[in-house]
Design a protein that fits this description.
The protein is an alpha/beta fold and 225 residues long. Helices cover 28% and strands 26% of the residues. It has an eight-stranded mixed β-sheet with strand order 1-7-8-6-5-2-3-4. Strand 2, helix 2 and strand 3 form a beta-alpha-beta unit. The longest helix is centred in the middle third of the chain and has 14 residues. It starts with a strand and ends with a strand. The mean pLDDT is 93.
């Protein structure tokens, strides 16, 4: 397990339109975890919340058959354009998480979902939809944890990245309840971004750690027995 500030990959998508999450620390941390998996030309990979397609394209470079899903029309367009620009072949579908792939199972599911705690209740709108995830930051995380087992083949793996502000133990417990064996494999300390800095007073009111102005990112790896 590592605790450090991750570095960007050598290749990244060329186009990030307004309103689509731009690849950064969490993307790079999950990319590193992806490279440790045994991805081959026969590996079926699902990327949930693909954004620009950064992770999906990295899996495709490793030889996987990749399905990328996002609810945002701009993200779907960005992933398709970036696939063309990078010369990679991925299947991009618009939909709400796993509802876009009903009945399908995969060897590997990867996800960098929105996970920033927000004082606004309910589903985020506009550009904030790329990062806001409800009061506790778990609006999508809990759904991914609950659906993963249904969409993984036996011995399939889920890799998901999020902030420790969302509750790492909550993620591990949810995955365990879903029948998966889960553990934290990567940790990284990164400075607060613009959104978290703008919410300092609210975060402190909730009792969340903000004094050092850094957050811990974690990659959780879960296996379907």
């Amino acid at each position: 397990m590592t605790v450090e500030s991750p570095c960007p990959p050598t290749e990244s998508p060329a186009w990030t339109p307004p309103g689509v999450y731009e690849p950064q620390y969490d993307t790079w941390l999950l990319t590193r975890a992806l490279h440790r998996e045994k991805v081959t030309p026969g590996t079926d990979v699902l990327d949930l919340g693909t954004g620009t397609g950064a992770l999906a394209l990295e899996a495709a470079r490793l030889g996987a058959r990749v399905t990328a899903v996002d609810i945002s029309r701009r993200a779907v367009l960005a992933a398709r354009v970036n696939a063309l620009l990078s010369g990679q072949s991925i299947r991009v579908r618009r939909g709400d998480l796993t509802s876009a792939v009903p009945g399908h199972r995969f060897d590997l599911v990867i996800s960098n979902p929105p996970y920033v705690p927000s004082p606004r209740h309910g589903t985020a709108r506009g550009a904030a939809r790329a990062w806001d995830a409800g009061w506790d930051g778990r609006l999508l995380l809990d759904r991914i944890c609950g659906a993963a087992a249904t969409h993984l083949r036996p011995h399939g793996v889920l890799l998901v990245v999020h902030s420790a502000l969302c509750g790492v133990e909550d993620t591990l417990a949810r995955l365990s309840e879903a029948g998966l064996s889960a553990a934290v494999t990567d940790r990284a300390l990164v400075p607060f971004g613009r959104v978290l800095r703008s919410r300092l007073a609210w975060l402190r009111q909730r009792g969340l750690p903000t004094d050092d102005m850094v957050e811990e990112l974690v990659v959780v790896r879960a296996v379907r027995a």
